[in-house]
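Propose amino acids for all 238 sites.
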């Protein structure tokens, strides 16, 4: 089933056009990745889907409903949660307070259970629940940001550059967690500069260049695509 359908979105910063007719789809239960160099429009795409920026033209459909132009809080209620680039941890609040913010719109009785599940998935957060978010390491902050988003019970989790600035061992752990999140039933759309790691766990991928989708296809095929190999995977194609 199609969970997300983005059709021909054009997004501007003032007079500067950042997205030029971007279209993409995300199937339920899949991991989809968006690749591209700095300035390609990856983060702008995520912000537009999450409602932080309104597209000038084009549509965004979620579960068959046109959600173009809805506010971020409205989209969270519908099941879309964003882990932004840079994590946006509330540094002056404790780990537990950060997690509570993830569930602030929920009124159901499952919050405590979900909090327990998150603590099991991220045991370091349980150990440091009373520690200020700003004193955590980069990897721990990324785990906190993901955990906070999961407490909104998203149907679609948007991850913007989850491996940025992290050591290789932590990067491997983050990608393992992303795969586990998908296996547990949450669909994931991830923007990532680490193309090899992203394509290894993804089902489908899109490549952006100067605000346009230039290549898309099954992740396994993209891993072997000479254009991707040469531009993003750091080895020459044959």
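Proposal:
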């Amino acid at each position: 089933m199609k969970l997300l359908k983005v059709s021909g979105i054009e997004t501007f910063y003032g007079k500067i056009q950042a997205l030029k007719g971007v279209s993409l789809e995300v199937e339920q239960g899949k991991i989809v990745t968006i690749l591209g160099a700095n300035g390609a429009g990856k983060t702008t795409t995520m912000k537009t889907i999450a409602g932080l920026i309104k597209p000038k033209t084009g549509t965004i459909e979620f579960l068959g409903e046109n959600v173009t132009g809805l506010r971020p809080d409205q989209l969270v209620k519908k099941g879309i949660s964003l882990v932004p680039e840079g994590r946006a941890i509330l540094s002056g609040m404790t780990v537990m307070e950060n997690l509570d913010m993830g569930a602030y719109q929920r009124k159901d009785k499952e919050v405590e259970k979900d909090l327990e599940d998150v603590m099991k998935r991220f045991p370091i957060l349980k150990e440091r629940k009373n520690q200020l978010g700003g004193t955590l390491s980069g990897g721990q902050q990324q785990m906190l940001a993901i955990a906070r988003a999961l407490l909104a019970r998203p149907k679609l989790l948007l991850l913007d550059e989850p491996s940025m600035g992290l050591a290789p061992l932590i990067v491997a752990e983050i990608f393992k967690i992303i795969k586990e999140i998908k296996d547990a039933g949450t669909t994931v759309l991830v923007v990532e500069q680490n193309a090899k790691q992203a394509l290894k766990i993804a089902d489908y991928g899109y490549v952006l260049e100067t605000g346009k989708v230039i290549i898309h296809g099954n992740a396994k095929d993209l891993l072997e695509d000479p254009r991707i190999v040469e531009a993003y995977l750091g080895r020459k194609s044959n």
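The chain has a mean pLDDT of 91. DSSP finds ten helices and ten strands in the chain.
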